[in-house]
Structures are given as structure tokens and as C-alpha cells.
Amino acid sequence: MLVKNEQKHDLIVYKVKQGGKTLKQVLVDELNMSIRFLSKLKKDKSIFVNNQFQRYDYILKDNDIIKIQIIEESSNFEPENIDIQILYEDFDILVINKPSNIVVHPTKSHPNNTIANALAYYFKTKGENVRIRFVNRLDMNTSGLLIVAKNSYAHHILSEDMKQNKVTKKYLAVVKGVVKEDFKTINAPIYRETDDSILRSVDERGQKSITHLKTVQRLKDSTIVELLLETGRTHQIRVHLSYIGYPIIGDELYGYVDEDLIKRQALHAIELEFLQPRTKEKIHITAQIPDDMQNLINKLRK
């Protein structure tokens, strides 16, 4: 079992309840460590039993204390003093409420002023050597919940949970047109049109993509909808809503643009539910609707 008060972002401390298993068996079966991760730990010589380095074939005894030091490279982003809203943080992860009009990590067109730069500054001020890894991604003009792993162990566990659809991701969007159905599942493959294009489209050559839609409120010429992702393709919600004839208001690529209403796509990652990668405790987080989307809804209700 985990020794809770000794956990750190770069240290896992585990107490063996019942001996007889090898060190490797416990790390794989009880801490869900991958063979690749174990290879890194072996290379770093960072696994200790009762404060002594041990091989993976070591037979554990009752009440042995396993300590795993997670050795990370330095931060891979330049620190910048940018305000971020942190909604949750523990030794493995943090969850932020990302504003719109900021990219998640540097690109050629946006080399700085990103969420990654802000996080590098945050961890630097805390004196923590964290290599920033994003578990989920949000487009520049999508707001809402973003999970950041503080170590490679947490990133691996949560990435696998994402692949197995164990992470609940809900979004809120405002679309053009009045949606007829109360509930609808959009099962349509998404394809990248060309290698040098950011555009995606529904195409049989694409990857399996599933979005579940729930109508929240019908307005005069628009609808507030909640989206639950079963898969996580680039631009999935935006492409799917456009495909069924209800484009997101403000979406310059796939939607309906009216800058008098809103100056970005009306899409917000509103809710997350997942298991803490180390303790397996359930974490449920919501992010309030941002002002620009609330103002849009107020205008459309008139």
C-alpha cells in the first residue's frame, strides 16, 4: 500500500503488505508500471527496498518499504510569468482552467506565451523540477479543463486510461440551429485532408471517432449542447457538429462566425472525471462557463 504522507512528485513510497512476490511483480501488478518504465528505472538505478538498491527478481518480505525515485530531465519549456488558474493539484498532476486565445504548448507560429511556458514558471517558483506533460489537449480558442502530469509515471497511467475511455471528458458548446434530438451519438470517422493542413473532415479513410450529444437548452436560432467524448481526435467536436448541420458559433474553420456574438468558438471543456494515477481515488472537477460564452448565451436568450 502507498505510504500517503511520503509521496512526492518524484518519489513513490510503497509498503508491502504480504511478501512472497518479486519486486517486478509488485511494480507491475500493484503499481501498474509498464515494462518500458521499469527499464528506465533500472537504467537510472532508482529503485530501493529498505533503502538498498535491489534487482527486479528480489523476493519481497512483509512490511518491506519500496522507494522509487523518478528521475526527470529539466523542464522543456522557457518559464514565463503568465497567470494560470489551478483548480486541483497533488503530487502527480494538476488541473488548470485554460482561458481561450492561448495555445497549450509552443509551436512555430506561437513560440512563447503558452500554457507550457506559464507552467514552467509556476514549477520553477515552487522549486520543483517538473518536465511538463499534457494528458489532454485543447485548441487555442477552446477554454476549459486541462490535465498536466508532473512525472512520467502519472503521464503513462493517465494516457492509458484515456485510450481505454476511463477518463470522462464533457464539453459545453453553443451551436447554430435548433437541435431536434434530445440525445444523439455521432459516429463518423475523421480524416486529415492533407499533411500540411490543419483541416479535418468526415471521411471513411479516417480514424474512428465517436461523440455523444445531449441537448441542454434550445434557444430561438441556436442550441446549448453538452458533448461527451468517447474518442479524442483533433477538432473532433468541431468537425462532428459541423457534419450534422449544427456548427459551433464562432468557429472560424468549421462553424458560423459572428464577431458581434463571440470572438472565438463557443466551446468549453466543462467537466472531467478520472482516477488519481497513484492512489486510484476518484477525481471530479468542473470549470465554470467563461464570461464570453455566458454573454453569448445571454444575447441569444433575448
Automatic annotation (TrEMBL):
It comes from the Bacteria. It catalyses: a uridine in RNA = a pseudouridine in RNA. Residues 92-242 form the Pseudouridine synthase RsuA/RluA-like domain. Its EC number is 5.4.99.-. PROSITE patterns: PSI_RLU, S4. The active site is at D139. Responsible for synthesis of pseudouridine from uracil. NCBIfam families: rluA_subfam (TIGR00005). Belongs to the pseudouridine synthase RluA family. This is Pseudouridine synthase.
